Amino acid sequence: MSTAAAWPHVATPLPGPKSAELLARKDRAFSGPLRDGTNVPLVLGRKYGHILEDVDGNAFADHLSAWGAMPYGAQPPSVRRAVMDTWDRYGMEISQYLTSEPPIELAERLVALAPAGITRVAPTVTGTEAVEGAVKLAREATGRPIILSFLGQYHGESTYLTASASTDIPGNTAGFAQFVSGLIQVPYPQSFRSPFHRGPGPYDHTLYLDYITDWILRYQVEPDQIAGVLIEPVAGEAGILAPSQAFWDGLTALCKKYGWKLILDEVQTCLGRCGTVFAAERWGLEPDLLLVGKGVTGGGQAVAGVLGTEEIMADCSAHLGGTYAWEPAACAGALAGLDLIADGSVLANTMELESIALEELSPLVDRFDHVGDVRAMGAWACIEFVSAPGTVDPDPDFQHAVHLAAMRRGVLAISEASKPLYRMQPPLTMEPDLFCWSCRQIAEAIAEVTTG
Ligand SMILES: Cc1ncc(COP(=O)(O)O)c(C=O)c1O
């Protein structure tokens, strides 16, 4: 497929006529939240390189990368070949019962890449299952019941643990969270909208550790009842919040002091999103359990899992997996993805995208009253909108209007109508000029919405 003319262009109103027809069918067929066609008013027709094309022929710069699950562009040839060849050879297989070489090699290579101390792997299909599995493992290893987690994080879509922890969209947990026991949640560190102060920061993130030690451990739970700390190294759905080194040092010290297992949810950050293979590397973290998903697929088929230490995983009885976990073709695609990231040019490109985001988007805070904060890390950038300058009052309506205006200019990024957060999550391999052009389109979209 030629990508010579692969530059964004939008020629119809959104949705275009074919998209509108399919969205109406979608509305009739799917359940509640999936019926909405206003957030993304188009239907995908095909994709190539770093471009998404809708069924009406409009083309958009891809700032979704399948929510991070497609890190190397639409159809990286080596991943495609590996998936197809392996499927031709083995077909679908339940690897946890009848294994083959691809899952074994994938486990070995992930362990070799992981931070010090990680020696073993438990396969899952989704990130959600990896989170749930890690909780089982931490509880089994410690014999303790409680998981300490952080408000505003996202860990997936299940009815037990993650339903209550998935608080990135206010209201998501209504009717579920109160039935989940064994969880204590504290605010996730951030500098912009700290729950302990009014108005914008910056604040020292060790405040959040003081809250754990001075309040939670004093009034709510004994330290020896806590099995593990479940935390994203960078909170993605909460808008690319990156805790400070001081926070991580303090949290690690608490884990050591009290025997808590550090469960790092890298489902969204693993395999390069933050410019390092694992985000853990940016702060020198050595988790006891490390969760992978999304980027680890290489853009092929579903692969996720829990990596962990010898002590926790060598002789555990907690069983993870399932029919589709690490079927051979998915593992082969993931292995081809590992080859791609081993060539340092992908991570170098990721860091170039970070520099462009900071250079192009940071000045928007001073330029526009409604831009409250800009955060970027690796191939990840977030603009947080506020209703008035100098405040932290969220303005999801403004955000959503910017998202629609950016789409009309050919940029499709991540926007949820109830949030003030607009997020760019391109493939790690996006060409710097397309990324830079996209940032400028977004700035123009903000100007358009500002002037009405
Ligand atoms: C940090 C984090 N953990 C877990 C999950 C759940 O992964 P999955 O959608 O594969 O179940 C996600 C998904 O976005 C995530 O961002």
Structure at a glance:
This protein is α/β, with parallel strands linked by helices and 452 residues long.
Could you please describe the fold and organization of this structure?
Strand 8, helix 8 (280-283) and strand 9 form a beta-alpha-beta unit. The chain is an alpha/beta fold. The two termini are 40 Å apart. Helix 2 (77-90) packs antiparallel against helix 10 (328-342) and helix 11 packs parallel to helix 14. The longest helix is centred in the C-terminal third of the chain and has 20 residues, at 432-451. The strands form three sheets. The chain has a seven-stranded mixed sheet, sandwiched between helices. Strands 1-2-3-13 form a four-stranded mixed sheet. A four-stranded antiparallel sheet has the order 11-12-15-14. The protein has two domains: 17-27 and 59-67 and 345-451, Aspartate Aminotransferase, domain 1, CATH 3.90.1150.10; 77-342, Aspartate Aminotransferase, domain 2 (3-Layer(aba) Sandwich). It has 14 helices and 15 strands. It is 37% helix and 16% strand. The structure holds pyridoxal-5'-phosphate (PLP).
CATH fold-level topology of the largest domain:
Aspartate Aminotransferase, domain 2
Q: Tell me the fraction of residues in β-strands, as a range.
A: 15-25%
Compute the average pLDDT: 93
Ligand identities: pyridoxal-5'-phosphate
CATH class division of the largest domain: Alpha Beta
- Placed side by side, the strands forming the largest sheet appear as 4-10-9-8-7-5-6
The global form is globular
Tell how many strands the DSSP assignment holds.
15
Order of helices and strands: HEEEHHEHEHEHEHEHEEHHHHEEHEEEH
Name the helicity range. Answer: 25-40%
